[in-house]
Amino acid sequence: MVILETLLIFLAGAVFGGMVYKTINQYSEKAKKDKLVNKINNQFKQLLSNVAMGNSVFKNRVNNTVFIGSNLKEHGDVDVVYMMDNKDVAVFKENKCIYTSEGVKKEVVDDLTHTIERRYKTQINDVIDILGFKFYREEFEKSFNVSMDDFKKQLGFDLDENEIDKIKKENEIKFDIDDILDKINKQGMDSLTFEERIFLDEYSKNNNG
């Protein structure tokens, strides 16, 4: 009988000990998670302060993605990637993503994206449209070492809007987008005629927003 009671006490103690350990472990994991979330929120608050105080630099825009350079005390120079269409922000260090806005307080993300759009409004809107793709004009010209006007002339897009509209209307029936894409696939972009290029450019604008 004594042995049975001792065994029951031992088992009860083991179960109770296991429950205590599990509770402590869960509390510890929650504390770690809360600490990490708090850390990430502080990093985003630091970015918000940097942008608001002018301690960041606009780098580029490609379609609806904006690239900004900034600095975090813990990481040094970082790249901030802001996706305007879904209001998401990611932070990169040497091409490695170290933070995303997932889990960050909504008001912090909203303040950061709003501040980015307000401070860099001029650069964000200074874009060129090439076959439906939007590029930050200054960076595009720097990368290709050519002004946008010269680039358009090289492609044959140096007509005014009235002339382009006229060509577009004349070729709405004449050209078929599938035929043009098939021609590009088989013979390359250089095989397109001037009118085909105008039609393709206008088609891309109208079908890509």
Short description:
The protein is of the alpha+beta class and 209 residues long.
Task: Kindly describe this structure.
Strands 1-2-3-4-5 form a 5-stranded antiparallel β-sheet, covered by helices on one side. Strands 6-7 form a two-stranded antiparallel sheet. It folds into 2 domains: 1-125, no CATH class; 150-208, no CATH class. The protein is built from 8 helices and 7 strands. The chain has helices at 2-52, 106-119, 121-125, 137-144, 148-155, 161-171, 177-187, 194-208; strands at 57-62, 65-72, 76-83, 88-93, 96-100, 127-130, 133-136. Helix 1 (2-52) runs parallel beside helix 2 (106-119) and helix 6 crosses helix 8. It starts with a helix and ends with a helix. Mean pLDDT is 76; it is low at 10-14. It has 209 residues and is α+β, with helices and mostly antiparallel strands.
> Which residue ranges are poorly predicted, with pLDDT under 50 across at least 5 consecutive positions?
10-14
Shape: elongated
Question: Please, how many helices?
Answer: 8
Give the total of domains: 2
